[in-house]
UniProtKB/TrEMBL annotation:
This is deoxyhypusine monooxygenase. It is an enzyme of class 1 (oxidoreductase). It catalyses: [eIF5A protein]-deoxyhypusine + AH2 + O2 = [eIF5A protein]-hypusine + A + H2O. It holds the Pfam family HEAT_2. Catalyzes the hydroxylation of the N(6)-(4-aminobutyl)-L-lysine intermediate produced by deoxyhypusine synthase/DHPS on a critical lysine of the eukaryotic translation initiation factor 5A/eIF-5A. This is the second step of the post-translational modification of that lysine into an unusual amino acid residue named hypusine. Hypusination is unique to mature eIF-5A factor and is essential for its function. It comes from Aedes albopictus (Asian tiger mosquito). PROSITE patterns: HEAT_REPEAT. HEAT repeats lie at residues 101-141.
Amino acid sequence: VRCESLREVRKISPVCNLPALSQSLAHLRMVQIEESKIADIGRVLNDQNRPLKERFRALFTLKNIGGPKALESIGSCFEDDSALLKHELAYCLGQMQDRAAIPILTKVLEDSAQEPMVRHEAAEALGAIGASEVEQILVKYSKDPVVEVAETCEIALGRVRTRGVVGV
């Protein structure tokens, strides 16, 4: 059975564990695609000679495909010169809600050479994933000298803690 939206799922079962269901649906949405094709898309994303429009299309394609190879391709692009692209990389990793992205996002948050908007989005993405194991890193960087990063870490920390208490 393939569900197109959570609204359809609620019609089937109005009372359910939405976070667990959401994770299950994420796996159902994953497209069956050869790893070599995912690598090709990753090369487009990481090719600084390509127009940003193509690279963004590759990024969103990888986000929709998901899985380890897509995460690897996205994670390897954080050395790029474009702060806007790196911001979107972090955003997409948060949207994927894959715990395997936590080390990538943590590294970005810890890297003070990254632009503040990129580090801010990495913190936001860690909060979106919502795993309890990110709590320590968010506490640490809630005292970051860059105000935008510190404030985002505080907000993300609240989100993680709320999820832990409420089970959302």
